[in-house]
Amino acid sequence: MATRWGICSAGKISHDFTVALKTLPLGDHQILVPLGKLQDAQEFAKKHSIPQAYGSYEELARDPEIEVVYVGTINPYHLPFGMLFMKAQKNVLCEKPMAMNLRGVQELMASAKMNKVFLMEAVWTRFFPASLEIEHLLSRGEVGEVKIVKAD
After folding, report:
1. C-alpha to C-alpha distance for 14 and 141, rounded to whole angstroms
2. Higher local confidence (pLDDT), 134 or 26
3. What span, in angstroms and rounded, lies between the C-alpha atoms of 40 and 45?
């Protein structure tokens, strides 16, 4: 059965995420609802052939069909919207940064544990084939001892 997604925000990053999600087999993922100002959400839904749109975060949180919410709002809203959706028993994939500070991230993590839902920051490079291969090579000791890592 397909994972049923809600999209929290009708902005560019949510557009990019939706386009990427639609490259996967329909049987694996289904986008049900975008959210934003109602007019923006309706335009987003039309553009991406999504059957329904909501104009309030609470409507999305109450939708029993949604299993996972992608939070693609501007950064200061990741914490309150992540909390709202997890309290509604929704799994959350939150865009970077997960929160504005450590305390916010800790609140989100505590909410995920308390509500027994999945929470993840949208760090997609972790799943690149090259990243997985590097992890594999390191775990098998095939590249020798790592002395320094520089990353941007």
Report:
1. 39
2. 134
3. 9
| Burial annotation 53-70 (CB, 10 A radius, 16+ → b, else e) | bbeebebbbebeebbbbb
Supply the DSSP string of the chain, one letter for each residue: --EEEEEE--SHHHHHHHHHHTTS-TTTEEEEEEESSHHHHHHHHHHTT-S--BSSHHHHHH-TT--EEEE-S-GGGHHHHHHHHHHTT-EEEEPSSSSSSHHHHHHHHHHHHHHT--EEE--GGGGSHHHHHHHHHHHTTTT---------
Given a contact cutoff of 8 angstroms between Cβ atoms, the answer to whether 108 and 119 are in contact is yes
Residue 36: pLDDT over 80: no
Confidence (pTM): 0.86
